[in-house]
Backbone:
């Protein structure tokens, strides 16, 4: 294995932006994944999975967004450059989804405290106030393989008590639906522009795992439409190492597209 | 061997209002847009459309052709949402049957294989089951998990667009992804394939691997030569998506006047008129 850097090897002294903290938080969701298809929606998760592969998760497989799995580290927002290692048209991706060796990071329009998510429609389903994409692969993804979420703008409009159309299946609904739904159901993390969540191992509810530097627990609560679950001491999301910052700034996103998704 | 060549008008003359029509491609990629435009010119209505939706759905919604949409998503890819589809939904103008995109594939496949259903975990726990109360789960006869029994999605007609074809109905994709076009054809009573160019059979494999011959003639009723027939969706390697035109299409949903102007300019005449208007637009933009 070449070009694998240890992110802990160098001290961090450069100041990381909020977007860069988010990139690293997304990358960390793919730590210790082994050989797994890493599918990321959004700019910051796309940088994150490539960063994970360049550093601590070198065996990840990544799509070019069309139909090839490509090695290498190309800048986000440009066409993939690197060795093609597989032909993966949609039909093959569908097979891999149900096979299970995939971890997706999707962008939900609504999330509730059990990790149910909506990308279909807001309001009355027969005549929605806001029609979105449609459920896409979210129902199948969530019951077949690991799923994480990326919320670029953490707000009470996204974090709601109840989502209008359950597209991605949350922990409560998976348990209620029985082993057909729960056997491979595996919600991992929710990364937002303010914080990182995981899930309570018994209750299946979202739990504040860390807040980004400069963010308070109160701020996160104010932007969340249900009571936050958090320990007495909420740690700070880790900062990028100098090596990670260099990779993000010079290799993976030299044009700074990450700042368009998360400012500051 | 049968010569299955016909015109887009011939295809649409065989369709009737109320039919269930599957449309190939994916999002804003390799859609049979020339055939869709021919439907726009017809008096067909009350269609049930089954598709991984793109601007085909948006245009048919805007023209009031769709009664029911069976879909997993509607997207323009480089622009996430189709405004005409959204407007139709938000007006309550169309009925929808929304499936996970893998369930949609399974439904087409079940129809193609003439099976009563295909099992899947997809849908369990989600509101896809809530909003589709006709869906049933099935116990595993071997003692495993209970799963969704995805019913077949039978189509009256499939419409697809390929890069090349021969006159007998063998179709070829030259881009990166065959999408699910063969499954639409298998699920349909009649399948019509438009293509960029009809060539002699031997030419299909002169420079391309036989694996690119995804569409077999035994699945195909008619073949239409329609150069630029996927415009403004992508049809690589023949052409990429016309992003500039797609933006204009999105703008046409701004208000009724904008839609009327778009119709007058691009959809009032024949397919040749459409292609001429697109060429004229390109001249203006580059001038």
Residues:
């Amino acid at each position: 294995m070449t070009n694998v850097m240890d992110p802990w090897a160098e001290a961090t002294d450069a100041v990381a932006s909020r977007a860069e903290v988010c990139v690293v938080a997304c990358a960390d969701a793919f730590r210790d994944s082994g050989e797994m298809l890493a599918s990321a929606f959004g700019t910051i998760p796309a940088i994150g999975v490539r960063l994970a592969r360049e550093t601590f998760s070198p065996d990840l497989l990544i799509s070019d967004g069309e139909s090839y799995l490509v090695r290498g580290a190309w800048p986000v927002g440009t066409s993939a450059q690197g060795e093609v290692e597989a032909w993966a048209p949609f039909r093959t991706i569908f097979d891999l989804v149900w096979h299970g060796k995939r971890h997706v990071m999707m962008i939900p329009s609504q999330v509730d405290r059990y990790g149910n998510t909506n990308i279909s429609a807001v309001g009355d389903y027969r005549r929605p106030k806001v029609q979105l994409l449609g459920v896409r692969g979210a129902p199948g993804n969530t019951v077949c393989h690991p799923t994480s979420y990326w919320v670029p703008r953490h707000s009470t409009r996204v974090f709601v008590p109840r989502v209008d159309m359950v597209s991605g299946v949350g922990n409560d609904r998976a348990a209620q639906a029985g082993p057909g739904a729960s056997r491979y159901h595996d919600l991992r993390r929710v990364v937002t522009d303010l914080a990182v969540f995981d899930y309570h191992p018994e209750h299946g509810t979202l739990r504040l795992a860390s807040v980004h530097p400069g963010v308070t627990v109160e701020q996160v609560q104010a932007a969340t439409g249900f009571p936050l679950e958090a320990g007495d001491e909420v740690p700070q999301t880790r900062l990028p190492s100098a090596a990670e910052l260099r990779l993000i700034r010079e290799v993976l996103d030299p044009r700074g597209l990450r700042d368009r998704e998360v400012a500051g | 061997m049968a010569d299955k060549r016909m015109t887009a008008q011939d295809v649409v003359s065989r369709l009737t209002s109320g039919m269930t029509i599957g449309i190939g491609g994916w999002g804003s990629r390799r859609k049979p847009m020339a055939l869709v435009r021919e439907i726009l010119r017809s008096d067909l209505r009350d269609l049930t459309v089954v598709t991984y939706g793109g601007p085909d759905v948006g245009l048919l919604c805007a023209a009031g052709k769709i009664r029911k949409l069976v879909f997993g998503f509607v997207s323009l890819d480089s622009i996430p949402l189709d405004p005409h589809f959204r407007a139709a939904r938000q007006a309550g103008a169309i009925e929808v049957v929304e499936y996970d995109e893998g369930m949609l594939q399974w439904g087409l496949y079940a129809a193609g294989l003439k099976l009563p259903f295909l099992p899947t975990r997809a849908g369990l726990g989600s509101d896809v089951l809530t909003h589709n109360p006709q869906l049933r789960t099935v116990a595993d006869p071997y003692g495993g998990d209970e799963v969704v029994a995805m019913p077949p999605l039978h189509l009256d007609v499939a419409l697809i667009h390929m890069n090349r074809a021969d006159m007998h109905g063998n179709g070829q994709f030259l881009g990166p992804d065959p999408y699910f076009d063969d499954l639409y054809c298998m699920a349909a009573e009649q399948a019509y394939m438009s293509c960029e160019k009809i060539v002699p059979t031997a030419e299909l494999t002169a420079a391309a691997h036989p694996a690119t011959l995804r569409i077999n003639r035994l699945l195909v009723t008619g073949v239409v030569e329609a150069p630029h027939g996927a415009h403004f969706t992508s049809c690589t390697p023949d052409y990429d998506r016309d992003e500039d035109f797609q933006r204009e299409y999105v703008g046409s949903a701004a208000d009724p006047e904008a839609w009327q102007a778009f119709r007058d300019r691009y959809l009032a005449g024949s397919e040749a008129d459409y292609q001429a208007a697109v060429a004229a637009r390109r001249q203006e933009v580059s001038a």
User: Anything to note?
Assistant: Chain A has a mean pLDDT of 94.
